[in-house]
Design goal:
By secondary structure, the chain is of the alpha/beta class. 32% of the residues lie in helices and 25% in strands. The chain binds flavin-adenine dinucleotide (FAD) and 1,4-dihydronicotinamide adenine dinucleotide.
């Protein structure tokens, strides 16, 4: 095999964790390579996750709005038709532009982009099998950062063909709108992709094991409201139902489900079934066994506070290890890991990582949910404000949703902020900053917010936490 000169850092995986770590390491003056086997940079997020799903969510929303919500605004539009091929082409264009952009950033920062599958063969060596089939490359390195991400958790007995039985990867690439779609799992992927296909005309049923949708972390009040709003948009929900088994041998797909409450069984049929029951760490072919690195019972690579494995020079970030499986979380860790290598210190505030569900309206939150605060035993106060009482939401004819604050009863320090409503994903940034700075709800309520904006609902929910809101 051929050899290149020694690197300071070799990053395995070119997703949000890996590419950011590689750029930061290079910016810090370290000789850095990034190994990626997909043929494009950006990982799950840019290629088959965040970016393509948001493109489809945005454009399917515009289509749906023109079809169902435009007349009341005084706009008459006739003959609205879906051009799914064009919608997919617009998505592909966004993806291509962004993944190509990272390649340019690599060049600008002097990161060596190695296209192939990386395998750790020793504490200081990564061997790469190039995707073009060329000769194996040996990269000698002082440090390794593992950022190999995650993959969809399969549903036992239902083989994914990405046509009839799909994961999110198939759900961003269907070539026609299915008549009936069943989504297994009412978490973020299920609700986002279920929304896309429901808006485009599919009859969508979401089967969720728990008694609430939204996946782990969503505040119960927000989850309830989300279910009501999405239900009104036409998505059917079967909460407290478990999918027992599936059969895709016929023309469509049959699922056997069971009520968690009374064990009553039922059969559902659909043209397409989306499996969205979570994601699991991806370490196939990585060679962890060559260096004795262990994973936990859920497949996550075990690390310490500085992202180190049992080998001090091998660090791990992103979906393949602990914590929320979110792109911005992986990016923060990428920067911190590079800084640890160069400077010996780095930091991520895990208490201030926002979550956003890009349905319409969006749901967004940061900090603890009410059920988490309750479980901690801390005394707390809650303040809420409905968008129905917000002037901008009213003029926009988008009044679904609310802002909810949870603060420490004694100190008024903000513990959690939960929003469901128009533009919640942008609005939550103010909440993240509040938590990062250790703000009290009164700090926020006494900060001037422009009128008329949706963010006044944010201010008033803060006010309602220690005092009374003006407009509610
Ligand atoms: P990944 O992005 O998975 O990247 C890992 C990369 O490593 C992959 O490209 C893989 O090909 C490569 N790789 C693996 N093994 C090797 C090897 N041995 N050699 C070379 N290369 C290798 N998060 C958000 O924050 N916001 C969203 O809106 C959002 N939407 C999502 C929508 C969907 C449909 C999905 C599936 C996920 C979404 N996520 C979202 C989650 C987000 O995509 C992940 O949290 C993020 O991509 C994790 O980054 P990562 O760098 O850890 O791993
Ligand atoms: P998830 O963990 O969010 O939700 C999975 C849901 O499936 C859970 O509610 C679970 O109770 C349910 N479930 C599991 N087995 C079931 C069964 N047999 N029958 C019925 N229900 C069952 O996982 P999801 O939605 O697959 O997403 C994976 C991760 O991807 C997310 O947790 C998130 O980290 C990331 N993501 C983030 C997005 C964002 O930030 N906007 C968008 C999409 C994905």
């Amino acid at each position: 095999s051929s050899e290149s000169g020694e690197h300071d850092v070799v990053v395995i995986g070119g997703g949000p964790g890996g590419y950011v770590a590689a750029i930061k390491a290079a910016q810090l003056g370290l000789k850095t390579a990034c190994v990626e086997k997909r043929g494009a940079l950006g990982g799950t997020c840019l290629n088959v996750g965040c970016i393509p799903s948001k493109s489809l969510l945005n454009n399917s929303h515009i289509y749906h709005q023109i079809k169902h919500d435009i007349k009341q605004r005084g706009i008459e539009v006739d003959n609205v038709r879906l051009n799914l091929d064009q919608m997919m082409a617009a998505k592909d264009k966004s993806v291509k532009g962004l993944t190509g952009g990272i390649e340019i950033l690599f060049k600008q920062n002097g990161v060596d982009y190695v296209k192939g599958t990386g395998t750790i063969t020793g504490e200081n060596e990564v061997k790469v099998k190039p995707i073009d089939g060329g000769e194996e490359i040996s990269l000698k390195t002082k440090n390794i950062i593992i950022a190999t991400g995650s993959e969809a958790t399969p549903f036992p007995g239902l083989e994914v063909d990405e046509k009839k039985v799909i994961t999110s990867t198939g759900a961003i690439a269907l070539t026609e709108v299915p008549k009936k779609m069943i989504v297994i799992g009412g978490g973020i992927i299920g609700l986002e992709m279920g929304s896309v296909w429901s808006r485009l005309g599919a009859e969508v049923t979401v089967v969720e094991f728990l008694d609430a949708i939204g996946g782990p972390g969503m505040d119960a009040d927000i989850a309830k409201m989300a279910q009501r709003i999405l239900g009104r948009q036409g998505i059917k929900f079967k909460t407290s139902h478990k999918v027992l088994s599936g059969d895709a041998s016929g023309e469509g797909v049959k699922l056997e489900i069971e009520s968690v409450k009374n064990q009553k069984k039922d059969t559902l049929e659909a043209d397409v079934v989306l499996v969205a029951i979570g994601r699991r760490p991806y370490t196939e072919g990585l060679g962890l066994e060559n260096v004795g690195i262990e994973t936990d019972e859920r497949g996550r690579i075990i690390i310490d506070q500085e992202y180190r494995t049992k080998h001090e020079n091998i660090r791990v970030i992103g979906d393949v290890t602990f914590g929320a499986m979110l792109a911005h979380k992986a990016e923060e860790e990428g920067i911190a890991a590079a800084e640890f290598i160069k400077k010996g210190y780095g930091h991520v505030n895990y208490g201030a990582i926002p979550s956003v569900m890009y349905t319409h309206p969006e749901a967004a939150w940061v900090g603890q949910s009410e059920q988490e605060v309750k479980a901690s035993g801390k005394e707390y106060v809650v303040g809420t404000f409905p968008f129905l009482a917000n002037s901008r939401a009213k003029t926009n004819l988008e009044t679904d949703g609310m802002v909810k604050f949870i603060a420490d009863k004694e100190t008024d320090r903000v513990l959690g902020i939960h929003i469901i409503g128009p533009n919640a994903g942008e609005m939550i940034a103010e909440g993240v900053l509040a938590i990062e700075y250790g703000a009290s709800s009164e700090d926020i309520a006494r900060t001037s917010h422009a009128h008329p904006t949706l963010s006044e609902a944010f201010k008033e929910a803060a006010m309602a936490t220690y005092d009374k809101a003006i407009h509610a």
